[in-house]
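cron nightly-structures :: item 1 of 1
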Amino acid sequence: MPVNQYQSLLRHMEWADSRIWSGVLAVPGLAQDTWMRERLHHFHSTQWAYLQIFRGERLNIPELDALPDLRSVARWARQFYRELPAYRDALDESTLRQHVVFPWAGHVLERLGSAAPATVGESILQLALHTAHHRGQVATRLRESGGEPPLIDFIAWVWMLRPSPQWPEQT
């Protein structure tokens, strides 16, 4: 896959996340929903972890208790997207082919019996797919809570001429 397609996956990820956050924060009853806060914290923790690993940094992910409400999780998620463009826009073919060493590879080895190296490109694809999976769970919970899940499909983003993200205020 060419570099620009990986960059598109990451751009779409932000657009879709901004839309899902707008939906979540618009439903007052979700402010106290522990499951929602945990799920959002989980997939944004994964985003942060991958970015920190890609940049060669020590993992620094706040525990859920350090983000006591949905708005604090949203602000933390938004900060990820303020930092991501510098990495995303500098991607090149060489970087995409580099192997990534994940600190949790030992756990993968124990669980699956193998932990073959993954490239940065494969890891970006995993990150986008992992986020989409959990974003879908959040959309389902949003509908169950009386909200209206936004359209967040990749192809819809393409058809809409790849709009910029629209983050809710105070994020």
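cron nightly-structures :: done
The chain has one domain: 3-159.
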